[in-house]
Amino acid sequence: MKLRDFLFIASRQAVLAAVLIAASSALAAGAKYGVIYRFQGSPDGAGPNSPLITDQAGNLYGTTQNGGSSRNCFDGCGTVFRFTPPAKKGGAWKETILHSFTGDDGNSPTPSSLVFDQAGRLYGAAANNIFQLTPPAKGKGPWTETVLYTFTGGNDGGHPNGVIFDNAGNLFGTTQTGGQYGQQGAGTVFELTLKGNTWSETTLYSFPLIKDGNHPGDLVFDSNGNLFGINSGDSVTCTPKFPFSCGTVFELLAKSGGWEYQAIHAFQGFNDASYPDFSQLIFDQSGNLYGTTAGTSGTGDVNYQDPEGTVFELTPPVTKGGSWTETFLHHFPRPGGIDGSFPIHGLVFDTSGNAFGVTFYGAGNTKTLCVGRGCGIAFELKPPIKKGGVWEEVRLHDFTTGSDGANPSAGLLLGAGGAIFGTTAFGGGSSACQDGCGTVFEFVP
Question: At CA 400, angle to CA 396 and CA 403, rounded to 5?
């Protein structure tokens, strides 16, 4: 299944109509855009689907959903890759395939960031497996894959997302299905602990299909060691027609003897937002949370194939036990609009407080490859000069279906010197994939 197909199916719920707001959206005149690499399908991978990460040497790491050297999967089983920067400015980046999945060891790695440990090993998820990739001892040669844990789909959950480390070296993550509620199970929060040479799984929380949300996404720690995440949610006070589409932001409080679940915000659909599933949360230094939703505020339903979207901020309560306060930084006003629609994978911030992200659709391009909704944009949101003012949106790049790529489906990475890196799921010009096999790109605003 292609990523574009997955997005349509996963977005089966209604996305709400837009409220047009006054916001500046000008194309950034000085943005320098360049494609680092165009994927070819086999053996180098196709459909890069995870946010890039970097090491101290400036190498880039990520995954592709398809492609690779294995023939055990219809479109290839996916890869983990590395790009090494050129020795001289303007030179070519070098791609190295660190691992091609075979199906037996996993396939179609999840669209979550990989993570390093202190020894330089990589961790991620593919199918029902949490895997580790160990670099060669002498710096050259193949990386070694080890499957740390395989979920059964039962009480321990199934179809894991990516993982993150705590300060003690334990891994935490979520699963999209399974849990203690049997067929009504809708995902879990888990911990993996290394005991001797074996990783042991502990389920910290199981989501029911209704009541407190379902199908959780990626996690993030706050400064106190509490876990925060986002899920599809379920609330009868949301959109009555599609109550499961609204979504929640939740917290798991670390307490002696266990973890306590709290929903800190439930999106309300009409006149609020909905469907935050494709977002990753991020904290600022003041403890505020930021993310994106595919559904936006409005007064009526919009077909799920015509998403719009919002960028939101949640401010923690002043007093313990109080409510978090929701503020919208930006509304994407219409499906496929000139300033983008369907923001995906959250935001990244620079040191000046500017936010950067991508949208899967929008920019007004209606070529066949982008199904009439546009091929997406990369954008910047500039904070207001005065508190409470309007954030200004600047379009950094409009994707055009051609060699520059189409439909970015993973968040951006801020690199050294102000460079910004990202990927597109499609485009790039390769004939090995029907819509192109995707790209890795760089630009400097």
Answer: 105
